[in-house]
Fold:
Amino acid sequence: MPSTRLTFIAVATSFTAVASLQSLLIPVLSTIGTDLGADAVGQTWMLTSWLIAAAVATPLLGRAGDLVGRRRMYFLALGAVALGSVLAAFAPNLAVMLVARVLQGLGGAVFPLGFGLVRDAFPQARLAGAIGALSAVMAVGSGLGTVIAGPAAELIGWRGLFALPLVLAAVGLTVGFLGLERSTTRATGRINVLAAALLSGWLVALLLPLSAGNQWGWASPLVIGLFSLAALLATAWIAVELRSRTPLVDMRVMRLPAVWTTNVTALLTGAAMFGVWAYLPRLAETPNASGYGLGVDAGTAGLIMLPMLVAMASVGFVAGPLSRILPFAAQLTIGAFLSGAASLSIAVLHGNAVVLAVAAGVLGLGTGLVTSSTPNLIVRSVPADQVGIATGMNANIRTIGGAIGTTVFAAAIGATLGASGLPAESGYVTAFVIGAILAAVGGLVPFLGRTRPSRPNVRAIPIAESPLVEAAEAA
Structure:
């Protein structure tokens, strides 16, 4: 079996394992909280601890992979996922569950490491298709928990849900040992410790209030103080990076038009995408007594979301070949507009399950185009020795967008809660209209910069290809 095939299988499996952990707990969060004795704040921490750990680990381990070898860091990150999944399945209390979630969050580094491994292993002619397919796998994995968690938990219990990431991580590790080759593309220098500390600090200070602001109160001194601290630390981080001879994140690369426009689009579309993912099932499950909800159970809500997963997977596997006639920059814009149209249609037409399923399918098409084109634009625009950190920062920006989106949706919907405890229809309408606007603006951003690959003014180390890769190119 060619090493390219083994590389793809290992990376795709690990992507699914890690991505599923983003949404696996959301449908059963209250059930887990009841069993572990966790109140609403504790339940929020189950999500926030994963989010913060992933946000910090993604760029740092991604950069470490650029420096000391992606294969080594890949095994470290995926091993943490496997250990965290075992610990979560047997967690006796909230404290142990939070430790497990932090370990699982370290797996976020698999994304930049995986893209780097694929760039090293695949010939240029097949690289775009491989990255597009992996992006689709990542997107499908992110939505997988929303679809299967509710019905699966009813059959095997919430603890059994962690068998999915555990088995996938085990497969990814096994295939990785067999097929992943040591990278011959290495960055020079070292990890800038001060820059790493400042980056970690502002990410934590930003994501913590975004995740818990609804419980703490947006006008509370703690939330305002953390946002202010995030701004100060981010400013200091940028200043340190610009002056450093060995930056953690090379700002010259981040300023490339193809990079910064793609990152801004990822932020905005990520906000829309995660907001819709989190609240479309809740809209469908709202009782009929509300006057607008469908009153379906978790299983039916999952079926409504199923077309989204099918569409995302389908688009991802054709995005590479499609780029020959429709450039990735155009795919990015079209995908953002489709996502916006889907969100707007949900805001206007949400009284029928079939209509919602169609909207979910359109959302999947848009999301598939966005998530497939984004890493391709990044990988094709940066030097080989910057792939890990560049794709890691892009993944982080999408994560930040997701946190912003779910927060905005929660605020818009929660502001209309009535005496019955149910939100008004206007709250959902407002939230999905906001999602449509965010996605549409994200689609316009690429027009502000040149989104075709640029030659960065940074010394790139050539990719060394194995004889198997050379043979594949010759074929």
